[in-house]
UniProtKB/TrEMBL annotation:
It comes from Paenibacillus lignilyticus. Residues 1097-1294 form the Carbohydrate-binding domain. Residues 1-32 form the signal peptide. It comes from the Bacteria. This is CIA30 family protein. The lineage of its organism: Bacteria, Bacillati, Bacillota, Bacilli, Bacillales. Keywords: Glycosidase, Hydrolase, Signal. Residues 505-560 form the Glycoside hydrolase family 42 N-terminal domain. Residues 607-720 form the Asl1-like glycosyl hydrolase catalytic domain. InterPro entries: Asl1_glyco_hydro_catalytic, Carb-bd_dom_fam9, Galactose-bd-like_sf, GH, Glyco_hydro_42_N, Glycosyl_Hydrolase_39, Ig-like_fold.
Length: 1295
């Protein structure tokens, strides 16, 4: 039946609803209550009235189902209310179709649907009469707003009954059945079955015509902006059309995956600027094909529905055959016909094929405009809760007296715990009212609060907020009076300086205090404090320090990054503050002034952040350069405040070999703790990785305490509940390992929406992690870790905490659900994860406790027997010998220089060092450069240089050297030996490289030549092609200025017929000034054989693999630096073969690994034994991971099926469902075989498989023998140490 709009509906919505429910679909057979489209074979039940002849509402034991007529998209709709129980078979809503619906040739089922606000899954299907076949498809519906559901008939799958063949002649019913056991509701409207394919609609939210061409002739202009559409955003085109040129046009590119065959009409909403105008509207075929158009008239400035039938589109021009071929159409054109200035607006543009179009969502007149907890940060101490809801009436008349606000409270497990209703007073048109929901929370924890209203027209508005309920503080309630007496287990890294106001900073400090934490780590940014040399602005940090002092929080001050004016980067360099400062002296001056200013309040200082990452210590993360900076910063801080604790920068991960290099360069004497950032990809207990990381750095600096100044989990990777669980376990495990200071990253999410406990908005909601940490701090208040309590049950962890004069507490959890018995003659108090207490009485001297992965706390006086037997995980830290760091030393000049100094043979060279003096007295003496042939010096005394350095200053000392032209190329070991120094300086070893006049570096695309002399150098390059390959060197001659470099690109490709190979090298020479410099470069080239027949992916290795070449990783240089010293080839090595066909890439990897261990799954598999593949689909070899660079993890989680996980670069991370994988472990030979297929369609940019196609490629194998990830071996590079596609090798598809 045609739908009737209610009286008073404004014209705007009339126009919108024409799009939502096509009025161009006339009725066919009023008695059947069905509407048919212009094309025979499309049938719609509008439910106005209901056209289904009867409903069967059937429910199994314990289930119920009912139906009710309610407000639809327009007119009426059908709501199904249900409660599906686990007791019986479930339930189904079965609707009989009108007998005159002729269903032969059906292609699509469509309807509008809306849910109840929670995600639901329903089986939607059809049923043949007389007990025939049932076919169905599972669909997901969540939102309360109308959405269009389209089900291609081809996607219906057989359920049961009949002969297993769907016969539309026999179909007489629609079935709707919820899949999950729960109560809920589903509302449906305009149930349609038709012989059409779904239409394509650009709703402009977002704009799917992503590539707009806005073209204008002489004197004309056109621009596109976003505007308010019929509902949601639309597009506005502002123009001036001149008579001087050909005019103008807006050209929208249609998405490539839109299949436009069968388009019946162009349907859209248009709005003009109030002037009557004509517009040419049409379509265009690709590759210079035909254009077709029709002229429409737009009057006034209201939204107008337009329908242009395909038959009305007339030929305009083009290079085609003059016939409209929808399969070739790839663009839409619209252009004003008259000259002048104005604008037009578009919304809901559809290529209409029949059936329904997406609904226009009507905004309810009564709307929940704001919802917030009436406590700072949404944290309530105690269970009295108040939530404020602000409601707006956007309608043209007052609301009725019957309106109500309904609210629902759910816990962290999404279980409903409370509901309520508040009467809404009459709200005048355009008015607003605030309501308060006051209630008592049932317990401590994390909760969501959803408020729902319904306006007089039946449209709902809903909004959700979150809040936390925590117990009042522990009775001691003390704040630390010094920087070393805190017993709080937890602390947080913060970004106070990024917050928008002092109110936010005060809120954050107070929330941290309420959580029971006492430690914060915050940046003190040099560039903010000293924006130009000698000009200081302390105002921001004065306020930050004051806010933390007021809340009783101790601070770790992160003395972070360069001022832009002091950076070693060239002027104008991006992120120049993340380059080290040009001199350590200027950094030391900043440190000294900052520490001195705040020494009465801040006593903990950290020198820089993560220098082992390129991003924070650019351009390359030199450990030697960082240690020079650390030494200067450490001494400056101690000079300003001798009582301060000053530590090295937190290193990303555990630092690995970078920490080793730091120790080798003397870092131990310039840090009061070893500091790391041990982020984990999953459960911190998986493979004991978290504990292993801490133990590893303890072993490297055994007399230094360990600090964690960053670590944590992202909610988008782990979910909010796992983030909470992993964090609390992490805090407890770190405390058990003796970690002295612990700052989770981060408290707020001002800079990252996924880490952290709370958002950065004033009054913003917290996450479950907040009440969980607060519970830990309250239950364990002022107690110290005593050891691990042995409870005699596998998979159970029990950490004992004790305090004099208080009952001991054990934090307990289990890898599997189980019950245990604890010996106790008295009742114990059990605290759940969020600190809710209950008493457990003993029975026969035992108390029974249920355990799971979510930890609990058990407190009782009789538990002291467990505490007395508890075994600590680490020994008490010994004080060690006093450290007396040197206050003066010799370093490189500049100290940031990477690698050895270069001496060009046959030329004059300068070699410099710097004497740095951070003592209070002048130092003087002579330096001798030993180990260099005397003939290289200009004079007999050229090897000696005198120095005299004032206090807190430095001096550069330069030696002049000229190796003869015949000097042997290579490295010369030298020593800078101080003579007669007062006070004495330590000698410094140096390595100087004797180089030719040109340094040659070769990668897979470029030969780079660097002039190491002070003269202009010119010459030629010769680079012959390897056998079977074609090599083109674009430029063979060069001229290079002193100290400059030139890059000579070359291209390399296999010749047709070249067979797959396992290795490839290129050899060439450079000739310049009579000197010939040969070079040889082994290239990382992987060649994939063409598969005449696709291999079966079962791990059994077809014969087809025999012809495939291997890419091998079995050399020590391919092993990660931290693993390299202990690595043996049997520890981990790999042989990878590749094949391809038109649709897939096939990979066979044989990994040698003495022990298989994979405790993780999904995106965390890199922490266990696993294979990682990386592809640069277009072989662009850009720095970093740019567009169309992909990383895949392959592994077999222990006890689970193998997984092929799409990681970095993919639009959505997750398992690759259309890939194939088999993993076979051979324990006898210590090998793991990975066989897999990857559809090329997954690697956007690669295209279909074709001979002689190239892509960037690398692979990496991770090794974990059960004590954490030891390291990895990588074929080329660019994956493990740095995500950098320019370091990938090349994968060639051979013919």
């Amino acid at each position: 039946m045609a739908k009737q709009l209610k009286a008073g509906t404004i014209i705007k919505w009339l126009m919108a609803l024409v799009v939502a429910v096509p009025l161009w679909m006339p009725n066919q057979g009023a008695s059947a209550a069905a509407a048919a489209a212009e094309t025979a074979g499309t049938w719609t039940n509008s439910f106005d009235p209901d056209g289904f002849t009867s409903w069967g509402l059937w429910a199994g034991e314990g289930s119920t189902v009912k139906q009710e007529s309610v407000t639809g998209v327009t007119g009426k709709a059908m709501r199904i209310d249900y409660d599906r129980s686990a007791l019986g078979w479930g339930l189904v809503a079965h609707a009989e179709l009108p007998p005159d619906w002729q269903l032969n040739g059906m292609k699509t089922i469509q309807f509008y649907a809306k849910g109840d606000g929670e995600e639901q899954t329903f089986y939607i299907g059809v049923e043949e009469k007389d007990g025939g076949d049932k076919y169905r498809k599972l669909v997901s519906i969540a939102d309360r707003e109308w959405t269009l559901i389209s089900i291609p008939v081809s996607e219906l799958t057989y359920q049961d009954g009949g002969d297993g063949h769907l016969d539309w002649d026999k179909v007489n019913a629609i079935n709707i059945s919820p899949e999950k056991n729960r109560s809920g509701q589903l509302t449906i409207d305009d149930m349609t079955i038709g012989a059409f394919e779904p239409s394509y609609t650009n709703s402009f939210s977002p704009d799917t015509f992503g590539d707009w061409g806005l073209w204008a002739g002489d004197g004309s202009q056109i621009a596109k902006t976003e505007t308010a559409g019929v509902a949601g955003p639309g597009a506005r085109f502002t123009y001036t059309r001149s008579d001087a040129g050909w005019g103008l046009v807006a050209h929208g590119s249609v998405p490539a995956d839109w299949k436009l065959d069968g388009t019946q009409a162009l349907k859209f909403m248009v709005r003009g600027d109030g002037t009557d105008r004509h517009y040419s509207v049409g379509v265009e075929e690709k590759d210079g094909g035909d254009k077709f158009r029709s002229v429409i008239e737009v009057k006034g400035n209201g939204w107008t529905p337009v329908s242009v039938a395909a038959s009305e589109l007339a030929y305009q021009d083009g290079g085609g055959d003059g016939k409209l071929d929808w399969s070739l159409v790839n663009g839409f054109n619209i252009s004003p016909e008259e000259n002048g200035a104005g604008y037009w607006e578009l919304d809901n543009f559809s290529f209409y094929k029949g059936g329904l179009l997406p609904p226009v969502v009507r905004e309810p007149s009564l709307k929940v405009a704001k919802l917030s907890a009436m406590k700072s940060g949404s944290v309530f101490e105690g269970k009295n809760i108040k939530i404020e809801a602000k409601l707006n009436n956007n309608g043209s008349s007052p609301t009725s007296q019957t309106r109500k606000l309904n609210y629902t409270v759910k816990d962290a497990a999404d279980a409903k715990v409370l509901t309520g209703t508040i009467a809404i007073p009459v709200i005048a048109a355009g008015g607003e009212v605030s309501l308060t929901a006051s209630f008592s929370a049932p317990r401590y924890g994390y909760f969501t609060f959803e408020a729902v209203t319904e306006d007089d027209g039946g449209l709902t508005s809903a909004m959700t907020t979150a809040f936390a309920v925590i117990a009042p503080p522990a009775s001691s309630g003390k704040h630390p009076q010094s920087q070393s007496d805190s017993r709080s287990l937890s602390g947080f890294s913060t970004h106070y300086d990024y917050l928008a106001s002092d109110a936010l900073r005060r809120q954050e400090a107070e929330l941290i205090r309420l959580s029971g934490s006492e430690l914060v780590r915050n940046d003190f940014l040099w560039n903010t404090i000293e924006p130009s040399k000698g000009n200081y602005d302390w105002s921001l940090y004065d306020r930050i320090v004051a806010a933390n002092k007021k809340s009783g929080l101790q601070m770790i001050g992160l003395l972070a990054y360069s001022a832009t004016w002091a950076s070693a980067a060239a002027p104008g360099t991006e992120m120049s503050e993340h380059y080290p400062p040009r001199t350590v002296g200027e950094y030391a001056d900043f440190v000294y002034k900052t520490v001195k200013r705040y020494k009465d309040t801040v006593h903990l200082w950290e020198i820089w952040n993560e220098p082992n990452l390129d991003g924070f210590f650019r351009p390359t993360h030199s450990a030697e350069a960082y240690v020079e900076l650390l030494k200067a910063g450490y001494l400056a801080a101690k000079r300003a405040d001798p009582s301060a604790t000053v530590v090295m920068s937190g290193l990303s991960g555990t630092g690995g070999s970078y920490l080793d290099d730091m120790i080798a360069h003397g870092a131990k004497n310039y840090t009061d703790a070893v500091v790391i950032h041990p982020y984990q990809a999953g459960d911190p207990e998986a493979g004991n990785a978290f504990v292993h990381d801490i133990a590893g750095v303890q072993a490297k600096m055994p007399n230094k305490p360990v600090w964690l100044t960053e670590w944590g989990w992202r909610t988008d990777e782990q979910g909010v509940n796992n983030q909470a669980l992993y964090t609390v376990k992490g805090y407890l495990l770190a405390d058990a390992m003796g970690v002295q200071k612990n700052a989770l990253y981060s408290f707020n999410i001002a800079t990252d929406t996924q880490f952290g406990l709370a958002d950065s908005g004033l009054g913003g909601a917290v996450k479950p992690i907040y009440p969980a940490v607060a519970a830990m701090n309250r239950v364990l208040a002022d107690r110290a870790y005593a050891g691990d309590a042995g409870l005699g049950s596998d998979g159970v962890t029990a950490l004992a905490f004790d305090r004099h004069g208080a009952d001991p507490v054990m934090a307990i959890w289990s890898t599997t659900a189980k019950t245990i018995q604890l010996t106790s003659s008295k009742a114990v108090t059990l605290y759940d994860f969020y600190g809710n207490a209950s008493s457990v009485a003993p029975s026969k001297g035992k108390v029974t406790v249920a355990l799971s992965a979510q930890l609990i706390y058990v407190q009782g006086s009789d538990l002291r027997s467990y505490v007395n037997k508890a075994v600590p995980r680490t020994k008490k830290l010994s004080a060690g010998k006093p450290v007396h760091p040197a206050e003066a030393w010799i370093m490189k000049s500049p100290y940031t220089r990477i690698g050895n100094a270069k001496l060009t043979r046959g030329f004059d060279n300068s070699y410099s060092v710097e004497v740095y003096n951070y003592s209070s007295r002048k130092i003087a003496g002579t330096l001798e450069l030993k180990g260099i042939p005397k003939s290289w010096f200009a004079s007999a005394k050229g090897m000696f240089r005198e120095y005299e350095v004032k206090p807190y200053a430095s001096q550069t000392i330069t030696f002049k050297l000229k190796p003869p032209a015949t000097a042997e190329l290579g490295t010369v070991k030298a020593t800078i030996q101080p003579l007669g120094s007062k006070p004495a300086l330590a000698a410094k070893d140096a390595a100087l490289d004797v180089v030719p006049k040109l340094a040659v570096q070769v990668d897979k695309k470029v030969i780079q030549l660097t002039n190491t002399t002070s003269l202009l150098v010119s010459g030629t390059v010769a680079l012959p092609a390897p056998a079977g390959w074609q090599l083109t060197l674009g430029q063979t001659s060069f001229e290079i200025a002193p100290g400059a470099s030139v890059s000579l690109p070359y291209s390399l490709a296999p010749l047709s017929g070249t067979k797959a190979m396992s290795s490839l090298s290129i050899a060439g020479s450079v000739t310049a000034g009579g000197e010939t410099i040969p070079f040889v470069q082994k290239l990382h080239v992987a060649t994939a054989s063409h598969a005449a027949q696709a291999p079966v992916i079962d791990g059994l290795v077809d014969e087809s693999w025999q012809s495939a070449a291997s890419a091998i990783a079995n050399e020590q240089t391919q092993v990660s630096a931290n693993y390299r010293p202990s690595w043996q080839v049997n520890d981990v090595s790999a042989n990878v073969k590749l094949m391809w066909d038109a649709s897939k890439l096939y990979v066979l990897a044989t990994v040698k690994d003495e022990k298989a261990f994979q405790p993780q799954s999904g995106g965390a598999m890199w922490q266990g034994d696993s294979l990682q593949l990386a592809f640069d689909a277009t072989n662009s070899a850009g720095a970093g991971y740019g567009a169309q660079v992909y990383e895949i993890q392959i592994g077999k989680p222990d006890g689970a099926a193998p997984q092929l996980f799409k990681g970095m670069g993919f639009a959505k991370a997750g398992l690759m469902e259309n890939g194939e994988i088999a993993v076979i472990r051979d324990e006898a030979n210590g090998t793991t075989l990975y066989e897999l297929s990857i559809p090329f369609a997954e690697l956007d940019g690669f295209g279909a498989g074709a001979a002689l196609k190239a892509a960037g490629f690398s692979f990496l194998v991770n090794d974990n023998d059960g004590s954490g990830r030891e390291g990895y071996i990588e074929w080329s590079s660019g994956v493990g140490d740095a995500k950098n596609a320019s370091q990938f090798g090349t994968l060639w598809l051979m013919n």
